[in-house]
Amino acid sequence: MFGMPGGIEWIIILIVALLIFGKRLPEVMKSMGKGIVEFKKGVKGVEDDVEDATEQKPDKIEAAENKSAKTETETAENKNEKTETDKEHINEMKG
After folding, report:
1. What is the pLDDT of residue 70?
2. Do the domain assignments include residue 91?
């Protein structure tokens, strides 16, 4: 029932498009084409990133995880040191 338009339907669609857009039709189609190309480039970039991430060697992944864990540990230690320093300053002010 609903499928791709046939020959007559395409002719009607083209006539309506010409009536609506007139002389601007080539510009509209050009900008639509550029938009589609940019979209495809974006999708391709994301696909490449995913592919690169899945192809990484396990040691590289482990190194990244270890680096992340080390950074988290250092952040927690810095927070603890700051809290202790703040407590000391409060005690000094109470004096």
Report:
1. 63
2. yes
Q: Is residue 82 part of a domain?
A: yes
Q: Which residue carries 């495809």 as its tokens?
A: 40
pTM equals 0.40
**Looking at the chain, how many residues does it have?**
95
- Is the confidence at residue 85, as pLDDT, over 80? no
**Cα R_g (the chain), whole angstroms:** 31
Which residue has better confidence, 53 or 75?
53
Domain that holds residue 91: 54-95
Angle, vertex CA 25, rays to CA 21 and CA 30, nearest 5: 145
Domain-embedded: residue 62: yes
Is residue 5 a contact partner of residue 14, using CB atoms and an 8 Å limit? no
Domain count, the chain: 1
- The chain-wide mean pLDDT, for the chain, equals 77
